[in-house]
Structure formats: structure tokens, C-alpha cells
């Protein structure tokens, strides 16, 4: 297994783990977004640009969810 394949395996594994843990805290949502970016980088480096694009979009969606969740919790603490 070469370094690029190992990087891809670790990226996708991290995505799976952090997605499963998202309900435990907002930090896991952000970690999922970062893992999606890593998987996107892997896709581009490997030459599978459609995979890279899709993972970049998923990262953006996860960041948006993270921002909404942290904003909602901040408002709840203020009230």
C-alpha cells in the first residue's frame, strides 16, 4: 500500500468515525468537515476529480451544519 492510498484510507475512515459521533458534540461535526477536506485532497491527488469535488461540497455542508449548531447552542445559553 503506497502513501497516497493510506492517506485516502485514513481520510475516509475518519469521515465515517466522526459522522457516527456527530450527535455527541459540535466538535465532531467540524472534525467530519476536516476529514471531508482530506478525502477531497485525496481524490484530486489520485486523479479522481469528481470524488474530490463531491467531498469538498460535503465539507462545506458540514461546516454550515457546524455553524448552525454552534449558533443555536450559543443562543440557548444566552436565554
Describe it for me?
- This protein is mainly alpha-helical and 79 residues long.
- The chain has one domain (3-78).
- It is 87% helix and 0% strand.
- The protein contains 3 helices and no strands.
- The protein has helices spanning 3-20, 26-46, 49-78.
- The longest helix is centred in the last third of the chain and has 30 residues, at 49-78.
- The chain starts with a helix and ends with a helix.
- The mean pLDDT is 94.
Total strand segments: 0
Largest sheet: none
Unreliable residue stretches? none
Evaluate the radius of gyration: 14 Å
How big a fraction of the residues is strand? under 5%
Order of helical and strand elements = HHH
Per the principal axes of the C-alpha atoms, what is the gross shape? Answer: elongated
Helix content: over 70%
Helix count from the secondary structure assignment: 3
Domain module tally: 1
What integer is the average pLDDT?
94
Q: Assign the structural class, choosing from mainly alpha, mainly beta, alpha/beta, alpha+beta, or little secondary structure.
A: mainly alpha
Q: In whole angstroms, how far apart are the ends?
A: 53 Å
Short description:
Helices cover 87% and strands 0% of the residues. By secondary structure, it is mainly α. The protein has one domain.
Amino acid at each position: 500500500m503506497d502513501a497516497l492510498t493510506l492517506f485516502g484510507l485514513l481520510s475516509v475512515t475518519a469521515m465515517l468515525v466522526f459522522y457516527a459521533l456527530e450527535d455527541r458534540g459540535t466538535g465532531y461535526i467540524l472534525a467530519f468537515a476536516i476529514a471531508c477536506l482530506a478525502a477531497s485532497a485525496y481524490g484530486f491527488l489520485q486523479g479522481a476529480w469528481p470524488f474530490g469535488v463531491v467531498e469538498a461540497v460535503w465539507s462545506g455542508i458540514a461546516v454550515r451544519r457546524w455553524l448552525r449548531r454552534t449558533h443555536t447552542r450559543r443562543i440557548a445559553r444566552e436565554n
